[in-house]
Structures are given as C-alpha cells and as structure tokens.
Amino acid sequence: MEGKKLALVAIFCLTFSMLPSNTVSIAVMSVDLGSEWMKMAIVKPGVPMEIVLNKESRRKTPTAVCLKENERLFGDSALGMSVKNPKTVYLHLQSLLGKKHDNLQVALYQKRFPEHQLQEDPVRGTVYFKYSEEMQYTAEELLGMVLNYSCGLAQDFAEQPIKDAVITVPAFFNQAERRAVLQAARLAGLKVLQLINDNTAVALNYGVFRRKDIDNTAKNVMFYDMGSGSTTATIVTYQTVKTKESGTQPQLQIRGVGFDRGLGGFEMDLRLRDHLAKLFNEQKKSKKDVRENHRAMAKLLKEAQRLKTVLSANVDFMAQVEGLMDDIDFKSKVTRAEFENLCADLFERVPQPVKDALSAAEMTMNEIEQVILVGGATRVPKVQEVLLKAVEKEELGKNINADEAAAMGAVYQAAALSKAFKVKPFLVRDAAVFPIQVDFTRETEEEGIKSVKHNKRILFDRMAPYPQRKVITFNRYNTDFAFDINYGDLSFLTKEDISIFGSLNLTTVRLSGVDGSFLKHADAESKGIKAHFNMDESGVLLLDRVEAVFETVEEEKEEESTLTNVRLKLLCLIGDVEDEEEVPPESGTESQDKDNKEEAEKEKQEESEKNAAEEKTQKTEEEAGSKTETKEEQENKTNGEADAEKKEKPKKKSKISEDITVELLINDILDPTTDQLASSKKRLQDLTDRDVAKQEREKTLNSLEAFIFETQDKLYQEEFQLVVSEEEKDQISAKLREASEWMDEDGYTATTKQLREKLSKLKSLSKDMFFRVEERRKWPDHLAALESMLNTSTFFLRSAKMIPVDDQIFTDVELNLLEKVINETTTWKNETVAEQEKRSPQERPVLLSKDIESKLALLDREVNYLLNKAKFAKPKAKAKAKNGTSSDKSNGTSEEKTIPPTEEDPPAKSETPEEVQPGEAPPTVEDAAQTETDGQTPPTEEATTTGQAAKPAANDAGEL
C-alpha cells in the first residue's frame, strides 16, 4: 500500500512540475514564410510537432492581405478578392523587404503588379503602398499584418496564447532584409526566438527523422529547393560530434549555398498568364487589350497557376475562364510543350545553383551522396529532367515533404530554444552566405611623405559558421577614429544579383573618448582598441561593444629575508602535519536509557575507533619524524629555490578595460525610429481592434436574425403550442415581427450594443416559454432515472439488512439514514408528480429537472458510501476452538482468545488467521467485540497479498 502511495505521489509531483506556472503560455510556433505561401507548425504539451490548419482546414495559407475601406482579409479570402479587386490585395511582399525605391527588384514588382502605387519613403528611401491618402502602408507593416494573422491561426489551433516563434527566411537574405523581417515580427507582437534559413530548417527536419543513420562518418546531402519566388541549392554535412555538455550528438553543417533570386514557380505562372492573354487577344472577341484590364489579368493568373499544376501530370489541358472581360468567356488548349518553350530560358538556369553550391563548398558532385527535392516548383517535370542531368545521379530524392519540411524543422528548433520543452539535441552550424569585413584608414609617413593607407580585415568569410563572436583589435590608434563595416568580396554574384543586392556598405562606426582613455591610463601599456562583434543565431551582425585595453605591472613587496621565508615554509609544513595528526571526533552521544545489548555494541564500536585512531596517529608521527630528520636538507633546498624564484619570477600584470563611446551610422537601410515603430504598432492595433469589433457585430447580428426566425417557427410547433397561452403567443409574435421589421430598416446599420439589447429583450420575453418546453423534454429521462435509482437503493437496503449480526459491516445509523433518504425521495416524487399533473402546461412547473437531479445525487452518494465500505471491509477474526480437537494445540485449554496485533509488537506468522484450520470453531462474541474495540483486524490472506489490509480497517473503526 505504501509503495503504491509513493508511486502516485511521485507521478503527481512529476506532472505538477511540468505544468506551467500561473497561466504562462508554453506553446511555441514556427512560420515558414514563403513568397506565395506560408505554413505554420506548433509544439505544445501533448502535441510534439503538428502543422496548423487554417480556417478552411488547409495546411498552407496564401501570404496575402486585402485592405478595404472597412475590413481586412487574409489568406484564401484575400486571394479570392484579388480576382474581384486586385488593387486592394498585396502579394509577394517578401521581395520588397530591405529594398530602396531605386532597386531593380522594386521596378520588377511594379511591372508584375501595375495596379499598385509604390511610393518612396523620403526618410528611409524604402517603398510604401499608397491606396489613398489615408491608407498607406510599408511592406514591413503589411508583412506584420500577415504574421499577426498566422499567430492568430496558431493560437486557435493550439487553444492557448502563443508569442514565441521561429521564422524562416531565404538563405540569401542580407542584413537589411533580415532586419526588415524582425521589424515586421515586432509589429505583429511576436517574440522571435530565431530567424532560421529555410534550407537549414529543411536540413534539420531531414536529420531529426534520420538520427539513427547519422554516425561519425561525414555524409554530404544536397537539397534543391525551388519555390515560388527563388531557388536555392544547399550542401549539408551530417556527422556525429562530441560535446562537453551532452556527449556525442548528431550535427548538421551548411557547407555550400547556391541560389537564384528570380528562378521560381511564380515566374512560370506569369509567363503562362501572358501566353493566355495573347491567345485571348488573338481570338479577337473584344476590341480591348486584355493586358490593360487588371481584373482580367488577375483571373488569367489564377488560371495559369492551375494550368501549370495540371500540365505537370498531363501533356495538354483546356484553359478556360468564364466572363474574362466584358462578359466574354475564354477557352483555349495549352500543351506541355508550349509551356516548356515559354520557360526554356528558366530551365537553362536550373543547374547554376548546384554549381555555385559546389564551388562554395569546394566539393565535386562525386562527394554528394544524394540530391533531395524541396519546394513546389520542383514538381514540374522539366525541372526534374534538367536537374537530373546536372547532378549526374541515377535518381532524385523525393523522400521529404516538399511543402512542410521547412516549417517542421523550424518548429523543432523553436522547441529546442524554448525553456518549456526538452528535445533531443541536434547541433546546427549555419553559414553566412555573404562575407563581411572591416575597412579603416590610417595615416603613414615614408621618407617624410604622409599618405593615407586603406586597410581591411576579414570579419566573417564566405560560408563562415555562425553564431560566432569575433574581436578586431586596432593597435595604432590613440585618438578618436572611425571604421566601416562592409560586405566583402562578392565576385561570386552576377551583375544582376549585385544590383538587386543593394548597398554594399553596412555601417560606419565612430568612436569617441579614445584619447581620453589614453590620457587617463598614461602610465599603462596599451593593448589596443578592441571591437567585439557577434553574428547571432538569426544571422544578424551586431557590434556588442568597443573597449580600450591597457596593461599595468604590479610591484610585489620584497620579502624580509630568506631565513624568514624558510621559517614560514617550515611552520606551514609543521601545521600540515599537525592537521593530519588530528583524530576525527566521534559522532553524537548515545541516549543513556538504551538496553545492555546496545551499550555493549557501542563500547565495541568505540574501542575499534580508538584503535584505528592510534594506528593513524602512530603513522603520522613516523612521517613527521622522517620529515624532521631531513630538516637541514630542506633548509638548503628552500634557500636555493627562494633565490631562484626571486630572480626568475615574472612580474604580476593586471588588465584594465574602459568602454569607448560608439556611434553607428547605418549605410544600407535605416531602421525605423522608436516613434515610427510605436506609430506603426498603433495603426496595426487599431486595425485589429476594428476587425474584432466587426466580427463581434456580425456574430451578434447573426444571432439576432437566427433567434427571430427560429422563435417564429417554434411558436407553431406542437410542443410549444402546448405550453404557451394565446395571449402570450400573440405578445411574443408581435415583438418578433417588430424586431424583424426593425432589422430590415435599421438593423444592418445598428451598433453592436443596439443589437445586443434587442436580442436580450426578445430572449427575456420568451424565456418562460422555452423553460417550460425544456423541462417537459427532460421529465421522462429524469423520472425514469430516479425510479431506477429508488428500486436499486431499496433492493440494496433490503440485502444489507439480511446480513447476519455477526457478519454485519454496516451500522444501524447508516442503514437507517439510507432508508430515510429512500422514503423521503419516494414521498417527494409521488407528491410532486401528482401536483404537477394538476397544473396546466402553461403554468410554471413545480416538478423541476434540477430538483430531480439533486435527489438522484443524494441517493447515489448514500449508496456509493455503503458500497465502498463493503468493498474494503474485511471479515472479522475467527477465534480458536474451545476444545482440544485442534491439530496444532495439545494443551487442552478450555478457551482461547485471538489478541489483535499492535504496531509495536507485530504478530508472528504462526499467529495469523491464515493458519486457522477448517475444523476450528468460529470466534466468540467476546473475541469479536474485543477486535472491534481495538480497531485492529488481523489481515486476511487476500488483504495481505494486496498490501491493503490496515487502512480500510482503521477507517471503519474511526467511522464507528
């Protein structure tokens, strides 16, 4: 019994320790933020990793937002609105992040979506969308809306608040683009645990589910990811490594990355769309050019996306759009060959990311064991055909979920970073795609001619692993100076990539207070100006601090004399010897009231300890004697060592650090100011509040409409007509009719408060009618349950009273109480039912379902109490036979009593009831009474086996 108790307590404590304190949310999420689609995944207690379903129960959601004058739409709703009013829908926002207005990527976006007005921010130089004078939003704000929507979907799916998230970004995102995503997440109210490269997330997901296949032999795998907007080829090395914290663990290391920013499925969709527009114009069904109609082109783009998917499995397909323009239908046949001809130059670019990845990793294709396809656009047959030739493999790997791998890998990383979950370690070593260096100038003088020399130091090489910290030391500066942080050699990028890349200069760092620190520590030796850099887990470069470091020499006090030094050392030595001679004190004294046996054992133990102490003392004295004998030798040796130490001992140095004031001038994309961020947050929160209020109003409006129509219909149903009088019916009908007319005139423009008040009045008016109907519906089942409970209770009571007096386990008080409850319940039921039958159905009933439930609960409680007592009761002890017929008793005693065992003196085995022979007489009344009085019933054989003998008996005695 005690063992089971301890086990239950341990389980409870473990469960309690895993529960969140207060109401803190412990669920985490990931967002695979693609250019066209986004996928969310969550981890919460009881749910390891799961993809979030949106409101349409789909596993992926369009990265789209629709902004109208009085509402916002997201996901599939926004995408559907793009066909009706494309000017209000914003898509492919990822390509505008971290870009200035004069960037080629912005011009390309304007060409693809001519319905939008892209304006230049006068301060930051970035772009924003202008729908009207009141509606102007930046790409970061729109992306923040999308992220906030994704968080809402995840919270609804997880059924708890979520704030912590890991967000995927393309591996080729530079510093400005990564900071833009972080700004969008901040506007959405998300706490970003990490920005993880999407290719790294895919590699992590692949490795986590193949952990057993990873050993100390390096295995190189290439992931070829062609999504909607871009293509990335990544070479990953899997291998187990040893760590100090968790021993041998699997690790993935990004070795090489190649990419093409413009190669993706969306470009194929656009070419198909333009082809369909050309076919429509050639049919000459309209004099207008369909390419000038934004709405018609949006319809053709939607059909082109469907067409591309179908042509991946069919050689031809009939494209058709109803009412494309001016109520003219469009229908035309398109073949796969035509599609491949349209995208021929795109397919030629398929192998290039593979070559770039191999070059960055300094590997050949022979070293790659497998090439795995990721991304929706890899399903195009021509892409697989060209890629298979480029990688020179027998087949391409398709053993990973091309759509969800990144989201699942990112949410695993989120769980690993969260303190609420414990996951198996999987080490991740990501790599920086773009090198970063520090540039600075220094004045030099050669042969009397002063010149300025430009210097650069590589901070992070291409494919350098991160997170990582670096320190750059400037040794030749003693006055205030500045240096630049720029990108390094980007010769591996094409001219088009460079133009899209943006500014090659990151930050100018101005230092002040350098000369002051040198004046303050003029007597110290300068160790340079040290700048501490950190590339964090998100791949964002940070300058932690800059400090001036100096070194001073501390003079040690000269010792009094060599003889004094020797004496001190000898004293220390003697002191050590004395410490060893000490005998450990004995443990605490024993109590004086112990018996003779315990005192004897104590004396024996003390004697053995004394002998051991004497042996130890003798041994220590011998060691001390041997050390004393060589005292002269030690003195001579110590004198020589002291002289040598005095000559050779280095001087003690101390380090002094002083922080230098740092001023950062951002050269690529200016971050929003604190006021701008606060203003953007408020605007987005106002939109969210407006959406919530609108949803609440619509919900109330629908509830009011439904109540009016349903109640009007119910008034003519038989069960309602039975309980409502004509007067009451006319009154309710009049109010419902009045509310319906109000709805037609003013209801659809009324406020939420007005709608709630109207609904509340109607519910209050018809409350009694619904109550009477509900009660009559419940009566049959409730009365049947009560009748059944009464029969069962009566049978149980009758059976309990038939138990013989000697074996009775229930007291008279308990049985009388049950009988009283049965009688009172029966009387109440009969009287209340009779009273109810006299009443009209239109009156308030006296037979209430809640009263029946109360009577049922009371009966059930009383019967269950007695049943539980019977369940745990044990048979009373049997007394030994009075005559001498027992086989194990030969003394011929005339009477025996079974003395119950006590806690201090447990009974021996021979005294337990299990050994009572069948021929023995039952216990006497006196014995049984003695047993009950003591409250100690000897355990039966069954109770002894289960280990539950003592507790129920004690409970029964206490109740008696």
TrEMBL record:
Polar residues compositional bias, start-end: 883-893, 930-948
Keyword terms, alphabetized: ATP-binding, Chaperone, Endoplasmic reticulum, Nucleotide-binding, Signal
Region called Disordered, residue ranges: 578-654, 874-960
Cellular localisation: Endoplasmic reticulum lumen
InterPro entries according to UniProt: ATPase_NBD, Heat_shock_70_CS, HSP70_C_sf, HSP70_peptide-bd_sf, Hsp_70_fam
Name listed for the protein in its UniProt record: Hypoxia up-regulated protein 1
Gene Ontology terms for molecular function: ATP binding; ATP-dependent protein folding chaperone
Keyword Cell membrane among UniProt keywords: no
A cellular component annotation (GO) from this entry: endoplasmic reticulum chaperone complex
Assigned protein family: Belongs to the heat shock protein 70 family.
